[in-house]
């Protein structure tokens, strides 16, 4: 089983454990005054068990969005798998029913959109778990038992051990998934740059939106720097969409506060009326899209005012203009794109020129180092946009291509690299060979080509060579070499052998 497939089981089971522990904590709180523990309701001899469980079910689904019965909890299934209730430890069917029940309980409820299909990638019938049913069962028991030893510390409201661990695992699986890793995860340090930029100067943000949200890590990262009221995201890949919803819940974000939808952002926008205060994205680089082949795009207000549509084989500016459409007037937008968007001609040049000349939305261009992203080694850039720029505002260019720490397979940004980039952006600082503020007039003179090397000279002059000193050094070395040769010649004569530098092959004289 490769890393990408194994991810579905491990992350799915972690999520099941999380829901179980959340359910138990919540139910125990409701039963506190009756001095009853939720797991104690498994005892069928207690009075009114069904009635109590139904009341807890109603409260749980309304406030938490999901429900698990006492005998559906993670801990109970592990105990059965470890033969604590007899010799029958077959739990595969029980687990299938439980995961299905979690989804079924939300049907017709407000939380249905956030829970339905969450466990569809946890295929408990797959031969990859084992050749026989017993082998599959043993594999699942082993994974659950190992997870059961981990304390998620959910009773500590200030702790996010599980959320951090989940993020770490997603990153590790992305690293092991090769090219596919880039489809669902943005390196954490890059996420931190984008998040700090779109929250600069703000403690609270009404809404944040990512139209290609992957596992949702970038959206969650924004919450590290500001209090976010509503989270919006859309993801094309079904498996990654499930991962994003799990990620939200695992970070303690209530189901009423996030809105993650599945589908193609460009052809099926789920949030047509959204105007978000913060917009972030790391869309697939130079992806194909329908472009001119779909006549509806020519009348679509997300794309139709720029004088051209993004090329069919390069959707970069389609994503960018889609995001600009959803950006609030007081908002900030940060998008990761390949360097080609800075200088390519044709339709992309028209769109780029319109954004800069007519709209004056471009705020900054940040060039990053190569080989930072999963699945590609190309250097990328971050484009920052704002709709409330003044006419004489300059555009900040930052060349951070040398800001990285070299890794074995992939480069990475250090905390100091991130701090330097963000500080330079926030303070609009000009630093020799690193950053410059460029006027719109200068950009116009360069035909709206945004190639960073046109605006920041990073050429390092070599130190001048003193030829007279160099000549003296060479003569000194030659004299030293002659003395060494004489010394070696003396040793060789004592040993009765030819010196290594001798051209005499007739024997020792």
Q: Could you characterize what this model shows?
A:
With 509 residues, the chain is an alpha/beta fold. The chain is 39% helix and 12% strand. The chain has helices spanning 3-30, 49-63, 74-81, 92-104, 112-115, 133-148, 161-176, 188-198, 217-222, 238-250, 316-325, 347-359, 415-427, 440-445, 467-495; strands at residues 204-210, 227-235, 258-262, 276-281, 327-338, 362-367, 380-386, 395-399, 435-438. The protein has a nine-stranded mixed β-sheet. Helix 3 (74-81) crosses helix 6. It starts with a helix and ends in a 14-residue tail after the last helix. Mean pLDDT is 89; it is low at 505-509.
Gist?
The chain is α/β, with parallel strands linked by helices.
Features:
alpha/beta, Rossmann fold, 3 domains, nine-stranded mixed beta sheet, 39% helix, disordered C terminus
Q: Helices and strands in order, then pairings?
A:
Layout: H1 3-30, H2 49-63, H3 74-81, H4 92-104, H5 112-115, H6 133-148, H7 161-176, H8 188-198, E1 204-210, H9 217-222, E2 227-235, H10 238-250, E3 258-262, E4 276-281, H11 316-325, E5 327-338, H12 347-359, E6 362-367, E7 380-386, E8 395-399, H13 415-427, E9 435-438, H14 440-445, H15 467-495
Parallel strand pairs: 1-2, 1-4, 2-3, 4-5, 6-8
Antiparallel strand pairs: 5-7, 6-7, 8-9
Helix pairs in contact: 1-6, 1-7, 1-10, 3-6, 8-13
């Amino acid at each position: 089983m490769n890393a990408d497939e194994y991810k579905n089981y491990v992350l799915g089971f972690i999520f099941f454990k999380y829901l179980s522990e959340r359910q138990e904590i919540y139910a125990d709180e409701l039963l506190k005054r009756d001095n009853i523990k939720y797991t104690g309701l498994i005892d069928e001899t207690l009075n009114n068990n069904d009635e109590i469980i139904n009341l807890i079910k109603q409260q749980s689904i309304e406030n938490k969005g999901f429900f698990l019965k006492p005998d559906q909890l993670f801990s109970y299934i592990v105990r059965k798998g470890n033969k604590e209730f007899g010799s029958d430890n077959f739990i595969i069917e029980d687990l299938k029913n439980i995961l299905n029940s979690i989804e079924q309980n939300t049907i017709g409820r407000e939380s249905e959109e956030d829970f339905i299909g969450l466990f569809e990638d946890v295929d408990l019938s797959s031969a990859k778990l084992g050749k026989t049913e017993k082998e599959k069962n043993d594999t699942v028991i082993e994974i659950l038992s190992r997870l059961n030893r981990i304390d998620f510390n959910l009773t500590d409201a200030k702790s996010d051990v599980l959320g951090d661990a989940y993020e770490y695992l997603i990153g590790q699986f992305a690293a092991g998934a090769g090219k596919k890793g880039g489809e669902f995860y943005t390196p954490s340090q890059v996420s931190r740059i984008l998040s700090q930029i779109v929250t600069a100067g703000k403690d609270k943000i009404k809404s944040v939106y990512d139209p290609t949200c992957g596992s949702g890590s970038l959206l969650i990262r924004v919450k590290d720097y500001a209090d976010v009221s509503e989270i919006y995201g859309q993801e094309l890949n079904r498996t990654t969409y499930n991962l994003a919803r799990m990620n939200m819940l695992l970070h303690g974000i209530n189901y009423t506060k996030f809105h993650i939808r599945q589908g193609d952002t460009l052809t099926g926008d789920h949030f047509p009326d959204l105007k978000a205060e913060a917009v972030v994205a790391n869309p697939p680089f130079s992806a194909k899209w329908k472009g001119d082949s779909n006549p509806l795009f020519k009348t679509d207000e997300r794309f139709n005012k720029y004088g051209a549509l993004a090329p069919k084989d390069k959707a970069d500016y389609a994503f960018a203009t889609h995001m600009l459409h959803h950006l609030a007037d007081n908002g900030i937008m940060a998008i990761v794109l390949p360097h080609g968007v800075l200088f390519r001609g044709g339709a992309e040049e028209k769109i780029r020129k319109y954004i800069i000349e007519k709209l004056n939305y471009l705020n900054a261009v940040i060039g990053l180092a190569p080989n930072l992203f999963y699945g590609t080694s190309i250097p990328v850039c971050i484009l920052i946009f704002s709709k409330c720029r003044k006419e004489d505002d300059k555009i900040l260019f930052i060349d951070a291509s040398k800001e990285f720490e070299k890794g074995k397979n992939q480069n990475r940004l250090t905390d100091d690299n991130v701090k330097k980039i963000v500080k330079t952006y926030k303070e609009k600082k000009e630093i020799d060979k690193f950053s410059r503020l460029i006027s719109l007039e200068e950009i116009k003179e360069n035909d709206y080509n945004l190639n960073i090397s046109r605006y920041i000279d990073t050429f390092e002059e070599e130190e001048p060579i003193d030829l007279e000193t160099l000549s003296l050094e060479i003569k000194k070395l030659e004299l030293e070499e002659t003395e060494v040769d004489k010394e070696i010649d003396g040793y060789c004569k004592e040993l009765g052998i030819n010196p290594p530098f001798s051209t005499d092959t007739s024997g020792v004289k």
